[in-house]
Amino acid sequence: MKNKLKIGGAVVLAIVVFLLWLRWGPDSWEVQITGVTGDGRDVQYRIETVYADSAETLIFRNEDAGFTPPYFKFDSADLQSVASRITRECPEVPVTVHGYSLRIPWLDMFPNATSIDAPQRCIEAPSDPSAVTGSQ
Question: Taxonomically, which superkingdom (predicted)?
């Protein structure tokens, strides 16, 4: 009887760990950033993307995780700025978005972006002042 309880407990524990990993485990997606929305106060930051070489969309939420381990994310506004810059400078370039969680539409659940790996030319601010102001 004790062996059955131990095996049953181990199975339940394994399922719980697997579900927690699915919910909070790290992942990476190769996507092209097509837009950004939200102001971080009234409307949550969102990063709109499509999978590289595809028309299938994937939307990331971009919110601070605070002191929630293991992410300790406090830079959602900075990440939103990087995503916005990539949208303007290199919309056709695939980038890697790192984050956690899953996209489950019926639960209105989006993965949370934690960082973006992109070519340096896409991340750097334009050095030409006319590019910023739009003047020639």
Answer: Bacteria
